[in-house]
Every structure is written in C-alpha cells, then in structure tokens.
Amino acid sequence: MTIWIHTLKTYSALITEKGGWMVLSVLSILFGLCFSLDQASYYYMGDLYSTFQIILISLLVGMVIGPIYWLLTSLILFWLGQLFGGCSSSSWKDMAVVVAWSGIPFISKLILWILSFILFGQELFLSKTPELDSSAVLILTYWTFLFFKFVLTSWYFWLLIKGIGFVHDFSIWKALPVFLIGMFILRMIFYLSGLTIYPF
Q: Is 81 inside any structural domain?
C-alpha cells in the first residue's frame, strides 16, 4: 500500500522483483471489473438488465477488458516514451508493472461500489431514480460517493503519470504529454473497436 504515498520507491521495488505476473493479471481484471461497473452506471444499463445480470456481465467483460486495457496501455505508453527520448534501458515489462500497480486507487472504488449497492440498489444503473430523488440523505451520499470516485480516478491518473516519468526517466512535465497522447490513442482504439467508450 506504500504506492499511495511512496510511489517512486514502490515502483522501483516492484520492477526489481522478478515474476509477479499473476498478481498483475489479477489487478488488471479487478480494474476491468470496476471500469465495467462505471460504464454500466454511466449508460443506465439497469433500464435493460437486472442488477444480477449487470454484475455478471461486468465480471465477464472485466476479465476481458481489464487485461486488454493493461497490455495496450503498457505498450502504447512505452512506445510513446521511447519516441520522446525515454530511457533506453527500460522495457515495456517495466511499464506493465507500473500500469498495473498505478491502478490501485481506481480499483479501490470497488469498496464504494459495494456500499453503493447496499444503499442504492438497482437505481445505480437506472435513468430514473425515484427513491434516490426522494431522500436528501441518499442524494448527499450519492454525490459524496461520486466525489470520492472522482478523487480516486484522478489519483490513478497521477500515479500513472509519475510511473511514466519513472520508467522513462522523465520529469512530470515531459511525462504529461506522453500520458495525454496515450490516453487519446487508447480512447480511439476502444471507441473504433466498439468495445467500450470512456465516460469522460
């Protein structure tokens, strides 16, 4: 959990360690699950499916989307970093480690998802939310959860930018355009392939 604060030291230790690909794969699947749930809520999938079906679909989709996103992100960010003059001694495997572990804040949103299921139920995925709208406490709680989800997603992006800088020996300001271009390329790939669309 040191990645939250001592990010660069944690990256260095993780990259130095050999193996651990099973852990990285699990992290990518959990990332995919959280991402799929975000998508289901953003596109009001509850209007078409039950909560059980949404969770099941999210699990199945997450097992596919998560690893694909992880590998594509690692390859693209490594390739872009090399184009920008990144460290020649680094490898895409180093970037794969960074991408997987930087997703810890994003994956942590699953805790909020569990609490949200308990409090809001099916309305998490519905376009119309009569029970939620009728309670000031639920509305406040809902927006509080959204705020924390935004913070955790932003933290994930920040760790990823720092990771790009670490792998390629860049400053934050040089890592930032690599991150932005990489995210744009990923968005286009996912959009054109019809796999999913980012909710931002």
A: yes
